[in-house]
Amino acid sequence: MEKVVIIGTGCAGLTAAIYTARANLTPLVLTGTLPGGLLTTTSIVENFPGFPEGVDGTELMLRMQQQAEKFGARIRFGTVEAVDLSRQPYTLTVDGEPVQTQTIIIASGASPRHLGLESEHRLEKKGVTYCATCDGALPVFRNQPLVVVGGGDSAAEEALYLTRFGSVVYLVHRRDQLRASKIMAERVLAHPKIKPVWDSVVTEILDVQQDKVTGVRLKNLKTGTESELACAGVFIAIGHVPNTALFRGVMDMDEAGYIRPRQGTATNVPGVFVAGDCADRVYRQAVTAAGMGCAAAIDAERYLAAQNA
Ligand code: NAP
User: Fold this and answer.
1) 240 CA distance to ligand 1 middle (Å)
2) What is the Å distance from ligand 1's center to 245 Cα?
3) Is ligand 1 within 6 A of the CB of residue 154?
4) Which residues form the domain of 157?
5) Residue nearest to atom 22 of ligand 1 (CA)
6) Which of 17, 91, 207, 268 is close enough to 252 for a disulfide, judged by CB 3.0 to 4.6 Å?
7) End-to-end CA, the chain
8) What is the CB neighbour count within 10 angstroms for residue 16?
9) Would you list the DSSP string of 47-114?
10) Are 49 and 144 within one domain?
11) If pLDDT is split at 50, 70 and 90, which confidence band does 279 have?
12) What is the CA radius of gyration of the chain?
């Protein structure tokens, strides 16, 4: 039986792994479908303390993993399919196999939010993407007009990154002001290749008939005017939804699906702790996720010590 199973290998999960490994709890760390978490889908991380020149997101996560493994964490590629939290020890089903554990740290993160359009769904991976760093360099996008949807830091980051490849990057935002941090907003608005399209939403991605992206249909929310914009790619960056479906009905969560911790990182289920983007709708930073991962590890360690005392 495991002492600690950590679900997720983003900043929260791997920091929890470093701390629980150093506490000799030899945690089992399950990667989920995106090993390394969301930071592996960004380029340079400029605000993680200790890296004045910035650090590549994937490199940062690999280093965290190495650090956790050095102290005895076991990383397993696998996805949790089911959880039974009705009796202790708890049982997780991981790729068809049961795993029993005394404690769980849920650090399952969040996934990109979709616009919810039928055409978006039909053209996903055919020009519609949720990750500029993953897909931006594809030949189909080179020297072509591209569209980024959103007005937050993610959209700003994606738009700036895509200026390396696209001929022009249209930033389509539903308001006339960016939500992104001041420094990112200033960079975006000053960039000669980025053209903001304010007060507008994408109502359809074209062209399902041709089975590839050729443009977007837009609606101006202030004037009601509809228009079309030709482009070869649509990069959607409109925030994230927490990866908590597995725990619905069992864990206490808010209406958006963020798990609500009770005291520190402890949840409504004894011995189950939570950290990172799956429990944080406010800060959602790499460093705050890492901080929560540390706190969850300490909480789990104290819980185990009290159980075994
Ligand atoms: P976000 O801050 O929640 O921004 C989401 C954006 O998408 C908002 O501008 C929102 O519009 C828009 N939006 C939401 N739903 C939409 C819809 N259905 N249709 C059209 N537009 C929609 O999300 P984020 O940019 O992913 O950032 C999440 C967190 O990560 C933030 O705390 C951010 O600071 C952080 N982050 C930081 C960095 C960095 O420091 N470099 C990079 C990436 C992310 P409204 O503005 O009208 O609400």
Assistant:
1) 8
2) 21
3) yes
4) 114-236
5) 238
6) 268
7) 18
8) 37
9) -STT-TT-EEHHHHHHHHHHHHHHTT-EEE---EEEEE-SSSSEEEEETTEEEEEEEEEE---EEEPP
10) no
11) very high
12) 21
* 272 and 216 within one domain: no
Task: Give residue for tokens 């959602």.
Answer: 284
**How far is residue 186's CA from residue 181's CA, in Å, rounded to a whole number?**
9
The yes-or-no answer on residue 11 being catalytic is no
List b or e across 281-291, with b for residues whose CB sees 16 or more CB atoms inside 10 angstroms.
eeebbbebbbb
Annotated active-site residue 131? The verdict is yes
Task: Tell me the CATH number at 100.
Answer: 3.50.50.60
Same structural domain, 87 and 29: yes
3-state helix, strand and coil shares in percent for the chain, rounded to the nearest 5: 30, 30, 40
In this prediction, residue 18 carries a pLDDT of 98
Boundary of a domain, candidates 236, 259, 290:
236
The DSSP call for residue 114 is P
* Total number of domains in the chain: 2
Ligand 1: centre distance to CA 13 (Å): 23
Average pLDDT, the chain: 96
Q: Is 134 annotated in the active site? A: yes
Same domain, 219 and 163: yes
Give the tens place of pLDDT for each residue, 165-224. 999 999 999 999 999 999 999 999 999 999 999 999 999 999 999 999 999 999 999 999
Whole-model pTM: value is 0.83
